[in-house]
Amino acid sequence: ATSPGDMQRAQMQGIAPVELNVIEHDRRELMKVYLGMSVMHGDRLQVLPVVQTSANLEYRLAQAILKVSSSEERVIGWMVLLDDKFPVGGGYAGLKRLLEERYRVKKIEPDENYALDPENISTLIIASPGVIAEDELEAIDRYIMKGGRIIALVDRWAISDKLEAKPRPTNISKLLSKYGIDMPLDLVMDESSSMAAFSGQVATYHVPYPLWLRVRSKDLSKEDPITAELSSLTLPWSSSIKLSNESKDREVLAYSSPFAAATYNEAPNIDPEAVAEILRESKEHESYALAVRVKDESGGEIVAVGSGRFAQDNFLARFPQNIAFIENAVDALTIGDRLIGIRSRVGTDRPLALLMPAEKATLKLINILVGPLLVIIIALVVIAFRRMRNRRVRLAYGKAGAL
Question: How far is the first Cα of the chain from the last one, in angstroms, to the nearest whole number?
Answer without folding.
Answer: 94
